[in-house]
Write a structure and sequence with these properties.
Radius of gyration: 18 Å
Largest sheet: none
Strand content: under 5%
Order of helices and strands: HHHHHHH
C-alpha cells in the first residue's frame, strides 16, 4: 500500500514532530549537499569547457548561461524534495533517500566524463557520458516513484529534474553523433 503522509491522520503525530531547529538544520544540510555537488560538478566544465565551446551542438541547445541557472534551481528543488521525504517519519524512506544519494553521485560523474574525459578520450567519452546520463534518468525516475508516495510535493518537485535530464541526454546524444 502506498502511503502519502503529508497530511497526518487524526491522532497521529504530524510530520513536523522533530524539533524545528533540527528540521531547519536538515533542510540546510540537504541544500548544502546539493549545491556542493553542483560546485564540484562544475569544475570539469570550467577546466575543460573550451572544447565544448567549439564543438558541434544541437540546434536546440540553450545559451550557456541557462545551464547554470537551471541547475541551481533543480539542485534546490532536489534538496527540498529529499528534505520533505526525510521529515516523513512514519514512511519507509531508505530507498528514496538512497536514490537521492545516487543522484548526487551521478551529478558528479556526468560532467567529469563528458567534459573532463573528452580531451583524453574524444568521442568515446561522449558515448560513455550518454550511458551515465541514461542511468541518471533511470535513477531519477526511480526517485520520483519513491518520493511521490511518501510526499506528493517531493515527487512533483523531482519531475522538472527528470525532464531536464532527458533534455540533457538529447544534447549529449547529438554531441556524441556529431563530434
Amino acid at each position: 500500500m502506498l502511503l502519502n503522509v503529508e497530511h497526518s491522520a487524526p491522532g497521529t503525530p504530524a510530520p513536523g514532530t522533530r524539533p524545528r531547529r533540527r528540521q531547519i538544520a536538515a533542510l540546510l544540510g540537504f541544500l548544502a549537499a546539493s549545491w556542493t555537488v553542483s560546485a564540484l560538478g562544475s569544475l570539469p566544465i570550467r577546466m575543460n569547457g573550451a572544447w565544448y565551446a567549439a564543438a558541434e551542438k544541437a540546434p536546440w541547445t540553450p545559451p550557456g548561461w541557462m545551464f547554470g541557472s537551471v541547475w541551481l534551481v533543480l539542485y534546490a528543488a532536489m534538496a527540498v524534495a529529499a528534505w520533505l521525504v526525510w521529515r516523513q517519519q512514519h514512511s519507509p524512506r531508505r530507498e528514496a533517500l538512497k536514490a537521492y544519494g545516487g543522484l548526487l553521485l551521478l551529478n558528479l560523474s556526468w560532467p567529469l566524463v563528458f567534459f573532463g574525459m573528452y580531451p583524453m578520450m574524444g568521442t568515446a567519452a561522449l558515448w560513455l557520458a550518454l550511458l551515465v546520463i541514461a542511468v541518471h534518468c533511470v535513477i531519477a525516475t526511480f526517485a520520483v516513484l519513491h518520493f511521490g508516495p511518501i510526499s506528493t510535493t517531493a515527487g512533483v518537485l523531482m519531475l522538472p529534474y527528470v525532464s531536464w535530464l532527458v533534455f540533457s541526454a538529447s544534447l549529449n546524444l547529438y554531441a556524441a553523433l556529431n563530434n
